[in-house]
Structures are given as C-alpha cells and as structure tokens.
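Deliverable D2.4 — example input (structure tokens):
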C-alpha cells in the first residue's frame, strides 16, 4: 500500500529510526492519537532534556520543500519556534501498511508572533514516570529543505513512520510498553511530549521510528 502523509504541519518526543521487518500485519499495539491529545511543553513523564549526550535526540536542521499550513510571515526576521510557542499533535492522516503505521507530527504556532522551523524533529519513545527513553532515536528520511515560517495559528507537519515491535524476536527486541513520544522541535533543546500507546524495543533491534523534515511527508 502506498500512503502519503499530508504535510501541513511539522516528529512524536526524543528520535527513533525505522527498522524493516516483513510479513506480519500491524497489530493494535501502536495507537497514534489524532485528536484530543496534544502537548505544548515537556510533560511530567519526561526528564529534563539535553541537546547533547549519549542517547539524546534533540532536533536538528534539515528538510524538504513544502509549507502546507504555513503562511507568509508578518515579521521580517522571525526567530526559531520555541517549544513553549508550539502545540504538538498527531496529523489527521494516518494509514496502516503491513507492520507499519504512516502518520505525521503537527506543529502549530500558538504564540502571538511569527516564528520559523527548519529541519528534523528529534523523536524517541519514552516510558515510566521519569520519561525514560526506550530504544534508539528516530531515523531521518529525506534531505534538508527551506525554512518554514509559521504565522500565529499556522502549522506544518513532519512525516512519521512507526514500525510494529511485535514481529521482532522477543529476546532481541526486549519489548517495553511506552507512554508516548518525546519530541524536540528542530533546533530546540526543550522537549515536548505526545501521549500514545504501544511497544518499543529496548534491545538490539534498530530504531522503530522514522521522521522526515518539517514540511515533508514519508511515502511507502
């Protein structure tokens, strides 16, 4: 199945990479929440996030063309969007293909001024009350692109692919129930949290998440 994620918005908390495995249909363990669950700042389940250090997943620059949902800036020199200026949610488009879920992360400017986003969000699974990271940060898909300018109320998306942990051998995956995603907006060191249910792999299995630059999608 070929699925294209709508890109109007710009990936789910500290970052993951896509790991392919074949044959199994996706189970109900991954449940992207498309409405009613959003985050505007780091929630209680997450720890204080750092931009560097082993296992962290702060967002960095890069992206492709596209500014769906973004509007021309009112300011001549808007600054980079901060986590406190953004609302984070899953995009409205979500599709299941084999053992993968294709969805997106949507960033909406909730401030009173224009701001910019460019590059890849940092995304990773987290669990527990302290927001412990599960597995590797999300892999990145695509190339660097232009800056997306968001006027107040404007939004942009980053494509997100979630691989089901179920088909992996349990002794390799070491499955862990997760509470959601830790997401760093591009070029930000303050994390946001997006609740979702599912399982991550704490073992030697590669990243189960893949994220694209803001303003882009990922196709199967």
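Example output (designed residues):
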């Amino acid at each position: 199945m070929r699925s294209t994620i709508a890109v109007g918005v710009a990936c789910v908390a500290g970052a993951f990479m896509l790991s392919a495995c074949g044959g199994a249909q996706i189970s109900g363990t991954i449940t992207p929440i498309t409405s009613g669950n959003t985050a505007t700042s780091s929630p209680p389940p997450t720890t204080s996030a750092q931009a560097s250090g082993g296992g962290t997943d702060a967002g960095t620059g890069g992206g492709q063309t596209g500014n769906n949902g973004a509007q021309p800036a009112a300011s001549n020199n808007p600054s980079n969007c901060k986590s406190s200026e953004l609302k984070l949610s899953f995009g409205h488009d979500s599709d299941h293909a084999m053992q993968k879920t294709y969805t997106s992360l949507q960033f909406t400017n909730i401030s009173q001024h224009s701001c910019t986003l460019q590059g890849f969000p940092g995304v990773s699974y987290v669990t527990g009350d302290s927001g412990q990271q599960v597995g590797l940060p999300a892999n990145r898909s695509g190339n660097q692109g232009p800056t997306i300018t968001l006027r107040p109320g404007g939004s942009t998306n980053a494509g997100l692919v979630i691989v089901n942990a179920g088909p992996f051998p349990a002794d390799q995956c070491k499955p862990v129930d997760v509470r959601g995603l830790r997401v760093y907006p591009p070029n930000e060191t303050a994390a946001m949290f997006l609740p979702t249910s599912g399982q991550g792999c704490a073992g030697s299995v590669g990243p189960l998440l893949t994220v694209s630059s803001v303003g882009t999608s990922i196709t199967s």
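The longest strand covers residues 100-109.
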